[in-house]
């Protein structure tokens, strides 16, 4: 009797595991929808240099834009199969929740409450930033604590609203917030004298300053008041799509760690005996199989847009108008915080 009951329990447990595995294999509505549509819908910023900004021909350029293009290549092996949807800070998460986009690559900080209350998930960190303030160079302000009673431009729906309020409350200094929906609106108000300062992430302050008519008239104060790690966001409930976005982001960082570039990816795929390189570039197919992607998914993406470092240099490196030092966005072997999870 005991043996018969034990065997029945084992059979039931095996059936449960099999059902779970089958459900996990078939539950991939986002990737299936993207393939059926023939196009990736990627949410991006409405316009900030270095991350997402149309060039003189109207073509979107920037770090977030390139990551979207690379993801389209990983899925379709075609960088043109992506549609960019510019979204404000206040509408980005509702657009994702409503299914208007498949993924959000849009200077979006990972926070606990966003992760636990919005019905969304964030993937691997791809950019580290911190909240700062920009003021006129001739304002005589050296430290943020000196801005007693200042009027500060802020963007609605961002962590920067709370960070600013929390800091000034903590030092018992009053300030007056002026809230805008878009970065360009806040920048225009700052230049027009409606605000004494603009508070947002330091990378976006640097980008805003670089595109102003007289950048030398403005200075980004050196203090940082928060941790702002950016990641792509997707909807909860689709683990397979989460895996694709997470491991695609990792692959771009891993490629830089391994020294794989647009120029040498083909040769390394053909000649490398390193097992990690062979897995990443699809010589051995298990990584692609685990994601329901082609074996060459990462190889194709690297060949199309380059590794993370190449993308960074092209979009906000020293030869760009933003000219933002990599700092914490260097890979960990060069003193930064970027660290690809093991891809094996």
TrEMBL record:
* Residue ranges that the Swiss-Prot or TrEMBL entry lists as coiled coil: none
- Organism superkingdom: Bacteria
Keywords, ordered alphabetically = Signal, Transport
Q: Spell out the CDD domains in the cross-references.
A: PBP2_BztA
Q: Where is the Solute-binding protein family 3/N-terminal domain?
A: 39-268
Answer whether the UniProt record assigns the keyword Glycoprotein to this protein. Answer: no
Q: Which residues form the signal peptide?
A: 1-23
Write down the InterPro entries for this protein, in alphabetical order: Bact_solute-bind_prot3, SBP_3_CS, Solute-binding_3/MltF_N
What would be one Pfam family of this protein? SBP_bac_3
Q: Which SUPFAM superfamilies match?
A: Periplasmic binding protein-like II
* The keyword Translocase belongs to this UniProt entry's keyword annotation: no
* Family according to the record: Belongs to the bacterial solute-binding protein 3 family.
Record-given protein name: Transporter substrate-binding domain-containing protein
């Amino acid at each position: 009797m005991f043996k018969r009951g034990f065997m029945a329990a084992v059979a039931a447990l095996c059936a449960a595991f099999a059902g779970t595995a089958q459900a996990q294999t078939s539950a991939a509505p986002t990737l299936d929808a993207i393939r059926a549509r023939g196009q990736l819908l990627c949410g991006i910023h409405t316009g900030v240099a270095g991350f997402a900004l149309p060039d003189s021909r109207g073509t979107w350029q920037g770090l977030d834009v390139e990551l979207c293009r690379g993801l389209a290549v990983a899925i379709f092996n075609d960088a043109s199969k992506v549609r960019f949807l510019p979204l404000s800070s206040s509408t980005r998460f509702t657009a994702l929740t409503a299914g208007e986009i498949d993924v959000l690559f849009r200077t979006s900080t990972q926070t606990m409450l966003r992760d636990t209350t919005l019905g969304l998930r964030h993937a691997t960190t791809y950019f580290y930033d911190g909240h700062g303030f920009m003021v006129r160079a001739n304002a005589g302000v050296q430290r943020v604590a000196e801005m007693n009673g200042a009027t500060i431009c802020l963007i609605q729906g961002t962590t920067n609203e709370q960070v600013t309020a929390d800091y000034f409350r903590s030092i018992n200094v009053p300030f007056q917030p002026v809230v805008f929906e878009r970065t360009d609106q806040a920048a225009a108000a700052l230049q027009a004298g409606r605000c004494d300062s603009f508070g947002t992430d330091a990378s976006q302050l640097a980008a805003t300053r670089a595109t102003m008519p007289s950048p030398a008239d403005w200075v980004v104060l050196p203090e940082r008041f928060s941790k702002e790690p950016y990641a792509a966001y997707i909807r909860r409930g689709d683990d397979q799509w989460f895996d694709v976005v997470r491991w695609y982001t990792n692959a771009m960082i891993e490629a830089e760690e391994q020294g794989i570039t647009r120029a040498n990816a083909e040769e390394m795929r053909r000649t490398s005996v390193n097992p990690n390189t062979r897995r990443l570039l699809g010589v051995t197919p298990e990584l692609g199989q685990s994601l329901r992607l082609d074996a060459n998914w990462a190889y194709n993406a690297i060949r199309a847009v380059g590794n993370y470092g190449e993308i960074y240099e092209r979009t906000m490196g020293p030869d760009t108008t933003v000219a933002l030092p990599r700092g914490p966005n260097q890979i960990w072997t060069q003193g930064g915080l970027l660290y690809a999870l093991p891809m094996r």
